[in-house]
Amino acid sequence: MSTPSPGAGAILIAAFQALRPKQWTKNVLLFAALIFSLHFLDNEGHLALQTLGKAGAGFVAFCFLSSSGYILNDARDVESDRKHPTKKNRPIAAGRLPLGVAYGLMALVFALGVSVAYWVGPMFLAVAILYYITTLSYSLYWKNIVILDVMMLSSGFVWRAIAGAVAIDVYPSVWLLACTAFFALFLGFNKRRGELMLLEDRARTTRKILQEYSPELVQELQAVTSSGTIISYALYTALGSPTPWLMLTMPFVLYGVFRYMYLVRAKNEGGAPDETLYKDKPILATCLLYGITVVMILLLAPINSKVEPL
Known about the structure:
The chain is mainly alpha-helical. The protein has helices at 8-18, 32-36, 49-76, 78-81, 99-120, 122-140, 148-167, 174-199, 203-206, 215-240, 250-267, 273-279, 281-300. It is built from 13 helices and no strands.
């Protein structure tokens, strides 16, 4: 007896889920340049609505483009995802979104992303296309190369940080990019550890690349990237930020990193960083308090005129 085809309403729901809206939180990184450069205010201390609009449009563009990449990745990995304990529930792997519809949706959201990116500006469009090429190359090739898989995946975060600066016409700080790169690598290798702990013996059949990793290797890589994240952020606050008072945010960064490592080691979390963020209240509270503290410091503390604010 054949399985009945899903109705139009079910396909629409599956199509929205295939966009992975939870992972749009990654694109919040585009607002980093806006905040740390103080460009969210104009010369008179009022909200710079035009600049905010550019940053917001950039965020929307990257949401569309990243979703297009997610759909392509899910379409290519449909067979291996069906063997995965959690990915088997994704719309394409579960059969709730036909492949033909998925590819059409991928083209649609790509076109929308390019259109919005072009409205932001030609340079922003160029960075957005480079980001998309990076995600495509990851899905088509780099995801099967040990170490480089995580490095290429992490480079998407760096492109987001650069795009956020380009959208509002400021120069991206090398300190900000270094911190972003280390933090993305930290999340990436923790994701690999989370996948290893979740899948255990099934790792060889569900994800070929996981055969190349071991818990001991990932643990060492975690140590390097967590140290790099903390040190690069500390150096940014002391040497590259608009005010050294941002050093007051270090406790939030330290706790966030340590808490995430605890969740990966003790709770077998980290396989899906976005879900870990949403589920863990201490991390959510830390992110909220960090954001409030940064804005308050930038508004109230004296700004170092010798440092380009970003």
